[in-house]
Automatic annotation (TrEMBL):
Taxonomic superkingdom: Bacteria
Presence of keyword Ribonucleoprotein: no
PANTHER family: ARAC-FAMILY TRANSCRIPTIONAL REGULATOR, HTH-TYPE TRANSCRIPTIONAL REGULATOR EXSA
Domain HTH araC/xylS-type: 330-432
Keyword terms of this UniProt record: DNA-binding, Transcription, Transcription regulation
Protein name: HTH araC/xylS-type domain-containing protein
Coiled coil: none
UniProt xrefs under PROSITE patterns: HTH_ARAC_FAMILY_2
Pfam family, one: PocR
Length: 442
């Protein structure tokens, strides 16, 4: 496979499936839990063991089967991100746990078990997919649901530990036949093919008996704060996430003259996919496709500006995927600021911004200053100048072209505005940055 291909190892070719099935059956019989091993897309690797009649019914229905596969894939992928088993509610409201199977930095699949209810804490768990079909809507399903076993959450944690240990013992004796599959629009963009000497497959354990290798390498100190990204996503705070991205890239490229291989952004791309995946399996798939599409044939090392543009577009696409589309009556100053953060040239005039909110220009100007502490013109100008500084430092674009792209009209207004705010003309600023880079390199 070429360097730009996306592929993954097929779990079915890495393990003794017959032996894994035997261990899975024995574990299910001992614990009374339903158990199955799945690949990275949620498709079964083993036959189901001790499944409840309700889950058998749901998986026999083509519509709900896809939801079951989605929960299995989502849970496994989240386990690989968190580096430990994940307990969650499935789309039908039953409690499962998922233990990811990883090799190197590749998520290969998971062992999913449960199909129970909890005596406590049931409704504190996140539900991976919306409950499109609930047992209470059908008398037959309601009867099957009433037969679901109720257990204590501690028992579930002990079971997760036990299945992880058993799986580790089984997977460490794997076959060395490496079959390749294409991931396609799967739940997480996986790196290029692993080699046979990458070490044992590992299943993360709750009690740390085996050190997990998470999807995003723990050895990389500079990591995107995915919790904060998720928090800003729910708050519809694009600016907050762009600040997080800027800090991340500053750490990744501490010297402005530095370039990095495109693969160095994979951990960030995987983190954004993981955030999307937590919001729903369909978002994970769409974000995976977005990453693959934007990477395309990109091969060359990237400088700070190129990294910024690439990552910004992915981050904004994440917001566009998750954020609701607002009717005019629901738009606010905050939502308009979000649009400016996405593109500082979208609302250059007070009149266009006021029209977006369907309020008068005077009312808008007062509200905007109360919200941001700045006038509309000062805020938008500052955002455009920040982008101009990045372009002057890291590209060879002509100054007039930068002025045109950032909608400074007439074009000589760009030079006057730039010098007013930074004390240098754009040309002087570019020369200063180049001199600083040469000094740092020397």
């Amino acid at each position: 496979m070429g360097d730009g291909d996306y592929g993954a190892l097929d779990l079915r070719h890495l393990v003794d499936v017959e032996r894994l099935q035997q261990i899975q059956d024995e574990f299910a019989a001992d614990t009374g839990l339903g158990v199955i091993t799945v690949d990275s897309t949620g498709a079964p690797v083993t036959d189901p063991s001790h499944f409840t009649e309700l889950c058998q019914f749901l998986r026999n229905n083509p519509a709900t089967r896809e939801l079951c596969y989605g929960c299995d894939a989502h849970g496994g992928f989240q386990s690989s991100i968190e580096g430990k088993p994940v307990v969650y509610q499935c789309h039908a409201g039953l409690v499962d746990f998922s233990v990811s199977i990883i090799m190197g930095n590749q998520f290969l699949g998971a062992v999913a078990a449960g199909q129970v209810l909890l005596t406590r804490g049931q409704y504190d768990l996140r539900q991976l997919l919306a409950a499109h079909s609930t047992p209470s809507t059908d008398p037959g399903l309601q009867q099957l649901a009433s037969e679901i076993r109720t257990i204590d959450v501690d028992e579930l944690h002990r079971a997760a530990n036990a299945i992880a240990q058993l799986a580790n013992e089984t997977l460490s004796k794997r076959s060395h036949t490496f079959g390749l599959v294409t991931t396609g629009p799967s739940l997480g963009r996986l790196p290029v093919v692993a080699q046979a000497d990458q070490g044992p497959l590992l299943v993360p354990l709750v009690d740390g008996l085996s050190k997990p290798i998470p999807l995003i390498p723990a050895s990389r100190r500079n990591q995107l704060d995915v919790v904060a990204v998720g928090r800003n996503l729910h708050a519809q705070n694009v600016g907050g996430n762009l600040e997080l991205l800027g800090s991340y890239l500053d750490g990744l490229l501490p010297q402005w003259s530095q370039k990095i291989p495109r693969d160095d952004l994979r951990s960030l791309e995987d983190a954004l996919i993981a955030v999307a995946q937590r919001e729903g399996a369909q978002y994970g798939r769409e974000m995976t496709l977005a990453v693959a599409s934007r990477n395309g044939n990109r091969r060359a090392a990237m400088n700070r500006y190129e990294c910024q543009i690439h990552c910004e577009r992915l981050l904004i696409q994440l917001h566009d995927l998750i954020e609701p589309k607002l009717a005019v009556k629901d738009r606010t100053i905050a939502s308009l600021v979000n649009e400016i953060e996405k593109d500082p040239t979208v609302f250059l005039s007070v009149s266009s911004a006021a029209q977006y909110l369907a309020i008068s220009e005077s009312h808008y100007s007062r509200q905007f200053k109360q919200h941001t502490g700045q006038s509309h013109t000062a805020y938008v100008t500052a955002k455009r100048l920040e982008r101009a500084k990045l372009m002057l430092t890291h590209t060879d674009k002509p100054i007039m072209r930068i002025a045109t792209e950032l909608e400074f009209q007439p074009r000589n207004y760009f030079s006057r505005t730039f010098k007013k705010h930074l004390g240098l003309t754009p040309g002087e600023y570019r020369q200063q940055q180049r001199a600083e880079r040469l000094a740092a390199a020397g």
